[in-house]
Design a protein that fits this description.
This is DAK2 domain-containing protein. InterPro entries: DegV_domain_contain (IPR050270), DhaL_dom (IPR004007), DhaL_dom_sf (IPR036117), FakA-like_C (IPR033470), FakA-like_M (IPR048394), YloV-like (IPR019986). One of its GO terms (biological process) is glycerol metabolic process. It is a single chain. The chain is an alpha+beta fold and 560 residues long. It is built from 21 helices and 18 strands. It has a 6-stranded mixed sheet with strand order 15-14-11-18-16-17, sandwiched between helices. Strands 4-5-3-6 form a 4-stranded antiparallel sheet. β7, α15 and β8 form a beta-alpha-beta unit. α1 runs parallel beside α4 and α5 crosses α6. About 5% of the residues have low confidence.
Length: 560
């Protein structure tokens, strides 16, 4: 199948197929993580990011590639999670800018757009590392540009792009020694390869359940539905419990190309009258091929069951209006709060575990965003936290190396003064808070807090999710592993033995205080034993013990 032009509909199909393949293989990509800890990591983050982009694309799908790519880029941007998700969002953000305003593109323009995406991704990373998804994307885009000079078939260009991406991925262990040591290829590059494979499959005309069907009838556009948008401000004068029909229900019925057997003949008058008895705010638009329906119903399942008698259902969307109304009231409360005098500073920190969250609040943090190793907050999560703060300056503490990029992206998008202090662990975040001074200038706080995060060492005890070897440390699945900063220093079946070995690596004659945070899988008696071990081994060290409640990590240690 030859494709000399690429429009918005075919591009959308490529994205849906790529998202489907990535979703199907997300756990495989997660399994390529270098560190054998139970993180939500690369595959999960890329999958959640691309799913967000595909959902936004499905809502705003257009025959014009400029408009479809813009919708995808917006969804990716708002849903980006983790470093891999942010980089993926930037690849398509640059692509979108390159095709902005175009109805369709040719092979050369497609290749140049891929190259523009790579440029955008490299610009987003402070210190690009070769042997990662960046390298895979860059060399693949370079091949696309070369291939487009030899052929005007977009499918052939994409196939050459995929082949180069595959070859580069296989070379990533030679570029990053840690990959070679563990015996894996780069996980982000592997995730991108699944996306590219989906692109090729769509260009070849293959189909999958993950592919949403494109718009088939422009006459039934969403513009007609826009006239029925709810008047949100009017809802402020009603109570949530007064809503009689609680579910805003929209869908399409395919009459001509239906997959339903024994369907009934369609009469718009009969259809409309029947639905009118099931709710209010009814809108029915139909032609010979399709019916588009909007209704507020209390039992949307009954509406769909009735409509299914006339054809197959598509683009089903059901929203809980009682929940929406409650959100509107909360937003109004936030607006009222914003009218109050602004604080000089607003502090946001990321933490997983109720104890850690409480400690951060006690140290002056205004908003604790739930997240960490098990689930990285998205750009949108940060923007939501930022919007809820009425402050002249907002400071974010990501407290995880895989969250810093999403925080930085939120800071760039926010319409407020937002600074990210790049704390990469819970102890670093707390050290930064100790250095914070509400009476100091923003520059003074940025400098002091950033300096403070370098004065604390972080130790973590977790468990291995697979067999591997890191340097001289042999690791078996299920072992406890001790991590000093970013290096695995011990592994074994005895939790206390591993914790003590880790502390011995972290504590030295210059150490003044060690803070122990108790997580899931550990108890206070064990923590007291570790405190006694420290007092016996290091006479001048003070020990503090707190309940952090963090998942997956029985112990976190802050060594200062």
């Amino acid at each position: 199948m030859v494709h000399k032009r690429l429009d918005g509909l075919l591009f959308s199909q490529m994205v849906y197929m790529g998202a489907g393949l990535l979703s199907k293989n997300a756990k495989l990509v997660d399994g390529l993580n270098v560190f054998p800890v139970p993180d939500g990591d690369t595959g999960t983050n890329m999958n959640l990011t691309l799913t967000s982009g595909a959902e936004e694309l499905a809502r705003r799908e257009s025959p014009k590639i400029g408009e479809s790519s813009a919708a995808l880029a917006k969804g990716l941007l708002m849903g980006a999670r983790g470093n891999s998700g942010v980089i993926l969002s930037q690849l398509f953000r640059g692509f979108s800018k390159a095709v902005n305003g175009k109805d369709e593109i040719n092979a050369r323009q497609f290749a140049e757009a891929l190259k523009a995406g790579v440029d955008s991704a490299y610009q987003a990373v402070m210190k690009p590392v070769e042997g990662t998804i960046l390298t895979v994307a860059r060399e693949a885009a370079d091949m696309a540009v070369r291939a487009a000079r030899a052929t005007d078939d977009i499918q052939l260009v994409m196939e050459k792009t995929y082949e180069q991406a595959q070859a580069t991925l296989l070379r990533t262990p030679e570029m990053l020694p840690v990959l070679k040591e563990v015996g894996v290829v780069d996980s982000g590059g592997q995730g991108l390869l699944f996306v590219y494979e989906g692109f090729i499959r769509a260009l070849r005309g293959e189909t999958a359940d993950q592919i949403r069907e494109a718009h088939t009838n422009a006459a039934l556009s969403s513009a007609d539905m826009d006239e029925w948008v709810h008047e949100q401000h009017a809802q402020l004068h009603m109570k949530t419990e007064d809503i009689q029909f609680g579910y805003c229900t929209e869908f399409m019925v395919h009459l001509k190309h239906s997959t339903e057997a024994n369907k009934k003949p369609f009469s718009e008058m009969v259809f409309r009258n029947q639905l009118d008895q099931m709710g209010d705010s009814l809108l029915v638009i139909s032609d010979d091929e399709m019916v588009k329906v909007h209704i507020h119903a209390e039992q949307p399942g009954n509406v769909l069951q009735y409509a299914q008698q006339f054809g197959s259902l598509h683009r089903i969307k059901i929203e809980n209006m009682r929940e929406q109304h409650a959100n509107i009231l909360r937003q109004e409360e936030q607006k009222e709060k914003k009218a109050e005098a602004a604080l000089p500073y607003g502090l946001i920190a990321v933490a997983a575990g109720p104890g850690l969250a409480d400690i951060f609040r006690s140290m002056g943090v205004h908003v604790v965003v739930e997240g960490g190793q098990t689930m990285n907050p998205s750009t949108e999560d940060f923007l939501s936290a930022i919007s809820g703060l009425n402050a002249e300056h907002i400071i974010i503490l990501p407290n995880n190396s895989n969250i810093v990029m999403a925080a930085n992206q939120a800071a760039e998008l926010a319409e407020k003064s937002v600074t990210v202090v790049p704390s990469k662990s819970i102890p670093q975040g707390m050290a930064a808070l100790v250095a914070f001074n509400a009476g100091a200038s923003l520059d003074e706080n940025r400098e002091g807090m950033t300096s403070a995060i370098g004065q604390v060492k972080t130790g973590m005890v977790t468990h291995a999710v697979r067999d591997t070897r890191m340097g001289d440390v042999e690791i078996k699945e299920g072992n406890f592993i001790g991590i000093a900063e970013k290096e695995i220093v011990s592994a074994g079946d005895d939790l206390m033995k591993i914790a003590k070995e880790l502390l011995s690596q972290l504590v030295d004659e210059e150490t003044g205080i060690v803070t122990i945070f108790i997580g899931e899988g550990a108890d206070e008696a064990q923590a007291e034993e570790l405190g006694e071990f420290l007092n016996e081994s290091f006479a001048d060290v003070d020990v503090e013990i707190h309940h952090g409640g963090q998942p997956l990590y029985p112990y976190l240690f802050a060594v200062e």
